[in-house]
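Summary for the funding panel

The consortium committed to producing paired sequence-structure records for every protein in the target list. Below we show the first two records in order, beginning with the earlier of the two.
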Amino acid sequence: MRETARLETPRLILRPRRVEDADALHASYADPDLMTYWSGPPHTDIEQTRADFVRHASDWRAWAITLRGDDSAIGVVAAGEKRQGNVSELGYLLARTHWRTGIAREAVSAVIDRIFAEGQRRVFADTDSDNSSSRALLERLGFTLEGHLRGEWETHLGVRDSVIYGLLREEWNATAA
């Protein structure tokens, strides 16, 4: 697993996520609306959020999204290598109070920059087909809809379809230029 290095943007600092960030992020993980399209139901207590952070610490690199000058986590962006050194999957969550501010785009962009700078060739995201906000973010970032998997996930909502969005390094570099 690669290092989860600190990343900086004009408004944000993305630092390695810590178990203690569960305190700041628990309200988001417990929010039924925010967690609608997550792979599991809203968290019922802080211990569940902490346990989730510990459980995923070894298989995904996770960055806490913080505003410059305030170290409190307001969200998270995570990357899991799916094909060693070549392909990573992205996931993200942002506290509702920061929606529609451009923060998610800025944070996810910084992680994409990092992944491609490490030499990976592709990133992808797997999202619920009804998650229009996540789909719109991916499309604004230049991701291409690559597939629709029917009946792919069994979640707290029941069996759900999944859509796969992908982005190649050369596509990202072309949009950055």
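The next record, for a separate protein in the list, is shown here:
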Amino acid sequence: MQNLPKNKKIILFDGVCNLCNTAVQFVIKHDKKDLFRFVALQSDLAPSIIKHIGIDTQNIDSIILYEPGVAYYVKSEAALEIAKHLSGGLALLSVFKVLPSSLSNSIYDYVAKNRYKWFGKKEHCMIPTPELKSKFLE
């Protein structure tokens, strides 16, 4: 994937999920080092990234963290890896990495499965403001 920024971590997220959009706004606010870029799973770019890294989309429907040329993370591992790089003491959440991934992913899957019911869903992906547009890849 040659067009992706090499020095950025790319978060693929569900662009119509209210919880996911709130999480993206939270990450933007706490991303003081400007490390993250965002791609909605519903975008034209997302399937290319997913195919490139070889993820089975049957098992993933909410969040993927991709570090071009380095690694990718899914589900709770992605969330904890993202938190590790955020300001405001959020890196402390990485202590949850000691939990077995089967447990943390079970909790993650339960929330992901119910996210539309609990938090709602948008008709369309959010459109970033002009000042945030550079953080979103298309």
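Regarding this second record: The radius of gyration is 14 Å. Strands lie at 9-13, 36-40, 63-67, 71-74.
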